[in-house]
Design a protein that fits this description.
- The structure is a homotetramer of 215-residue chains.
- Chain A has a nine-stranded mixed β-sheet with strand order 1-3-6-7-2-8-12-9-10, with helices on both faces. A two-stranded antiparallel ribbon of chain A has the order 4-5.
- In chain A, α1 (29-40) crosses α5 and α2 crosses α4.
- The longest helix of chain A is centred in the middle third of the chain and has 17 residues, at 96-112.
- Chain A is built from five helices and twelve strands.
- Chain A is an alpha/beta fold and 215 residues long.
- Chains in contact: A-B, A-C, B-D, C-D.
- The interface between A and B is medium-sized, with 27 and 34 residues.
Chain lengths: 215, 215, 215, 215
């Protein structure tokens, strides 16, 4: 295996879906938000992305069934405009090209199924409790729009790893998107930051009757 | 040399063979079990896999003959349903893609010669002596089956390196298999763990008159 | 994304342009000199080079707009014989192939638009203040020529990273060039070294009425 | 530049040449022996191999002329059966695939010009002065043959880096060869070990009137 392999379980019936991507990161915010959303819309697994840049071990579950680490894509019959990505792991920190490769693989796949807008969610470490959600976007106008909905523009910062790179690469492909960053005090697992990010995400996803306003 | 090269010494006469893979790992269990089995069935070397991800030195033997490190495949006239793999080395720990690459190379080769079932063998470090053999499988049913033969299901664990990755990659290709893990107290070379694993392996290999029950 | 991607904003009207390349390096001399020159000739951005060997984060600006790190190419209506490259970052120090790859990508692009001469600018650490500019070239004659204009030949040294490698790779493609090295005392940002290098660069760029003498 | 590039200065008139390869290594023995041989037969540079796995800097000479690091091939009108390789540098130690890649590139090139036998030369660290030359070969018979000429068979050892890997890779391509290892006390530059290795090399090169006996 020298490049990514995507196992498609079934072809979902999507309409210009928005991708919500939750990846392992700071405070585990991204993954937990994506899981909450998955449960909320009763989304089902429809594709798995395997890649040689993900860690080289397999996990066994409670039945002794072993599986490679992968990135999972979910969608729901209830909401044909949402596509959710949950990643098991990020590539090793020192392998920069791996980050570009896996983000390119994700974009190849989601743009083929019609995705034109991406929302990544991550934590951002702070030194005192804050309830604000920061937003950065692939255009000034996009960032401003979500600022008007209650987020604070994330100015002069860095967005590290897949949550940032996915957006940066989307932009040069002509795909729009935003990154929501929730301030965290706990680097491992920050429940409150997760809940704040989830609430804001639900607010913006519900803002247009057909989510059209997002694009 | 930028990818694996397989030198086939002769074409063996195999019938849906099971692959038993012993690789350098914890307690040296995998390699020692594979060597015992090779001797038991009088298996002969029929192919060598060379790869640019294996260490960059050559060894010389007692005659001054120098050879690259490689993975060796053995088979026997006595048992046309067994294929044994013994590996000289694993890739460097930090080169994750290398693990995916070499496992893919192994699977390409063995599936071309009809292999549909894989058994990897490794040690698993424990803190007190245990005689049990743990088993994980590419399906819940497979793991259960070997549990019924006396193994203990390896739940909620990790299988690191080639023994785990080979199984994980086999699974997404539709090849079944199990990993047998023997508890070790000695990380370098654990004879007793090796013997226990070998005994269990012989038991399951002998369980079907033609090994059919394995598949 | 597994290789460089160049986004061309518009096709500039160039005539055998000279490339002046300023990259992150010692004393930040290269980038600062390239920026001064860009302002001086009112050069405008016309192309961006994105590469999977550049760092794996995105930056956000004062408007929350996020962008990948990249190498930017500038040119000016005022001077159709100048092409300026400003790089955001160098690849990680331990990834040697990445340096060859990105230098090759730069040379592919600039040679396609007719560039036949390259000037790289960097700092060189010294232990006491010096006002000299060192020069190395892709031929003995080239180095000598700029020595006659006031530079000192950079003998028996090393030019590390993109400023050196770009020149070395240009040479084997039949493209000529020089590297200007300005002695620095401050490794992070040396203003005086930058000013000295910029003055010398302006001198040699202005030396031919049509810059022809450079080639 | 993403793979090796060989610049051929002229086509030499060779007859089944033997390659003598001197690479940076222990005690600098390999390079010094290859240089002595180059001077002795008045060999001239005829090809240069550039590779993205060699260090990412350029050197400048006493005239300010800058050049990439490379591997140089020499041959002589006086002896059409000798081909000499002198390498500027080895790839970084942790980049194992780089070693396989550059050795493959060397073998591709020399086998295309008819080379069927390879002699690599290196130092081997010892703790007390020894005048012996160790030999390892691509076959038991080859090693024995040079043992009869006065070398000692290098048993149960490792030959690290290009001197070993080049031989190991040659073997699986059906090219024969030996490695001469001269015991060194000085890891940086061992003159006496160099001289001993050179003397033995001259002896075996002179042993056949047309070097035929080597093959």
């Amino acid at each position: 295996m020298d490049k990514a392999y995507i196992k498609v379980l079934y072809q979902p019936n999507l309409e210009n879906p928005i991708l919500v991507a939750g990846l392992p990161g700071l405070g585990n915010v991204g993954i937990m938000v994506a899981r909450l959303l998955t449960e909320h819309i009763h989304a089902k697994l429809f594709a798995e992305l395997y890649s040689p840049v993900l860690p080289d071990y397999t996990r066994t579950d409670e039945n002794g069934l072993c599986s490679l680490l992968c990135f999972r894509f979910f969608t729901s019959e209830e909401n044909r405009r949402l596509l959710i990505l949950i990643g098991d792991a990020q590539p090793p920190a020192e392998d920069i090209s791996a980050y570009y490769e896996i983000c390119g693989d994700i974009l190849d796949f989601v743009s083929k199924i019609g995705c034109k807008f991406i929302i990544t969610v991550d934590g951002v470490p702070v030194t005192y409790a804050q309830r604000v959600i920061y937003v950065a976007g692939t255009s000034k106008r996009t960032a401003e729009k979500y600022a008007l909905m209650g987020a604070k523009v994330y100015t002069n910062g860095k967005i590290i790893g897949i949550p940032g790179l996915l957006l940066g690469l989307a932009k040069i492909r002509g795909i729009s998107g935003i990154c929501l960053l929730s301030p965290i005090l706990d680097l491992i697992s920050d429940q409150e930051a997760t809940f704040n990010a989830y609430k804001f995400l639900r607010k913006i996803l519900g803002s247009g009757s057909e989510n059209k306003s997002l694009q």
